[in-house]
Amino acid sequence: MDNQNQQKERKRGAVDYINDSRSSIKKAGSSLKTINLALRTVGQIVTKPFPWVWIVVIIILLIVLFQLFFGGGTGLSFDLDDSQNPTPSQAPVFPPIPGLTLSLNGPTSINNGDLVSYSVSIDYDSNVATTPIEGITVYNSLPQNTEFTSATGIYTYQGSSRLISWSLSEAVNRSGFSFTLRPLVRDFFLQNKVYAQAASPITGGVCSEGFTYCSVENLMNYFPNETTARQASIICNSESGGNPGSLNTNCGTNDYSVGLFQINLVAHCPGAYGAGRWGDQSCDNLLDVAKRDACQQRYSNPTENIRKAVEVSSGGSYWVPWAAARTCGIIN
């Protein structure tokens, strides 16, 4: 009896297995038909010309985007301006200087990662000029996204104001100089300018706040507060017009005064001058030319000149040595 039941169960299981297998085969056949239909549809799409055009366009766009953001090819383009009246915000505007022509030369583009080198040519016609060459300073305000690396000629670089300056004379920087910058970002348009400023006449009548080295913003890095920085800015502008190379050698006023704040070397260059008709330190008794020249070079540096002015003025609380302070009403 048991054997008969077992045989029936086995037959019933075999029939169920066969039926399940048939069902699975039918389902697989249906899936294969679906896959086959999908493949035929894809084949029809990709063999038509219109979709291929879009595929090519997408590939080209991907290549362009890759070169733009990751490529090492030409990445920076340039605009150069050697006008004496530049317009970008980082460059102040000065009146043109008769007889002076500046030429700024540099690349039109470079590769990402390369340094940028510029050269400045100077043409000075003394027959036309109304300002002696010794009273002219050429400036470059570093463009945004760049840093200073080097320069030629006798120059000063003011890191706080990102300003390079070259004081002109017949002996130095007469024909021109060069400078090099490092771009700090990739793929951008770099606009650069050079400009020139003539020193204001030292008449004591210019009583307005200065710019560049004589600006309030720059002098606040040295003087203790905004009030003394504004006073210093007026005196600096009146004394030199912001020209670091300004020089007054009028012995009729016992002067050999240098730079932004007209530091008088007769009084502030120990060992250079001795007693004479002006007293213990007199311009008519030059004892040591080398010492005087060393002091002149030192105080032609804007930073050194400003620091000396801070020292002599006791941090802007004692302006008596400067005639401009009285003329401009800073002191009585």
Summarize the structure in words:
The chain has 332 residues and is α+β, with helices and mostly antiparallel strands. It has 3 domains: 2-70; 74-198, Mu homology domain, subdomain B (Immunoglobulin-like, Sandwich); 212-327, Lysozyme (Orthogonal Bundle), CATH 1.10.530. 36% of the residues lie in helices and 21% in strands. The chain has 8 helices and 14 strands. The longest helix has 46 residues, at 2-47.
Helix content: 25-40%
Structural class: alpha+beta
Rg from Cα: 39 Å
CATH topology (level 3) name of the largest domain: Immunoglobulin-like
Tell me the β content. Answer: 15-25%
Largest sheet: 4 strands, antiparallel
Strand element count: 14
What's the overall average pLDDT, rounded? 79
The spatial strand order of the largest sheet comes to 2-4-9-6
Q: pLDDT under 50 segments (min length 5)?
A: 71-75, 83-93, 200-205
- End-to-end span in angstroms? 137 Å
How many H/I helices? 8
Tell me, what's the shape?
elongated
Number of structurally distinct domains: 3
In the CATH hierarchy, what is the superfamily of the largest domain? Mu homology domain, subdomain B
**SSE sequence, one letter per element:** HHEEEEEEEEEEEHHEEEHHHH
CATH class of the largest domain: Mainly Beta
Which architecture of the largest domain per CATH? Answer: Sandwich
